[in-house]
Amino acid sequence: MARIAGVNIPNDKRIVIALTYIFGIGLTTSGKILDTLKIDTNIRTKDLSEDQVNTIRIEVEKKKVEGALKRDVMSNVKRMKEIKSYRGSRHDKNLPCRGQRTKTNSRSVRGNTKKTVGSGRKASAQKT
């Protein structure tokens, strides 16, 4: 297994997909990295030479990935909370902060405890 930016890259995947296992590198960024290095995107990770892996490693180190990127995101959220912005308050309450509705959706954010609310009239109406 190749190790780039502290992440073990899977051997049996195409290198363009395998690079997306690094936090901060998506499909577009991995494609751009491989294009600049003139490496085929369809080659498997296990088929790369050590020289190619080292050049990829050097190119990835130029970008802000993994720990540094996570630290930046955390500090941005912390700053929003400190200045008491709307987005910061939504982060504080563990609610969606990008305009999604919360009456019916956002179960994953609010928790999966489903509470059914009803009038209870249907059961009593059937008895009569």
Overview of the structural elements:
By secondary structure, the protein is mainly alpha-helical. 48% of the residues lie in helices and 5% in strands. It has a domain at 2-63: Helicase, Ruva Protein, domain 3. It contains 7 helices and 2 strands. It has a two-stranded antiparallel sheet. Helix 4 crosses helix 5. It starts with a strand and ends with a helix. The relative contact order is 0.10.
Q: Measured on Cα atoms, how large is the radius of gyration?
A: 24 Å
What is the β-strand count? 2
Low-confidence stretches: none
**How confident is the prediction overall: mean pLDDT?**
87
How much of the polypeptide forms β-strand, as a percent range? Answer: under 5%
CATH architecture of the domain at 2-63: Orthogonal Bundle
The biggest beta sheet is recorded as: 2 strands, antiparallel
- Please state how the strands of the largest beta sheet are arranged side by side: 1-2
Structural class: mainly alpha
- Structure annotation, total helices: 7
Helix content: 40-55%
The CATH topology annotation of the domain at 2-63 reads as: Helicase, Ruva Protein, domain 3
Note the run of SSEs as H and E. EEHHHHHHH
Q: Report the top-level CATH class of the domain at 2-63.
A: Mainly Alpha
**Distance between termini?**
71 Å
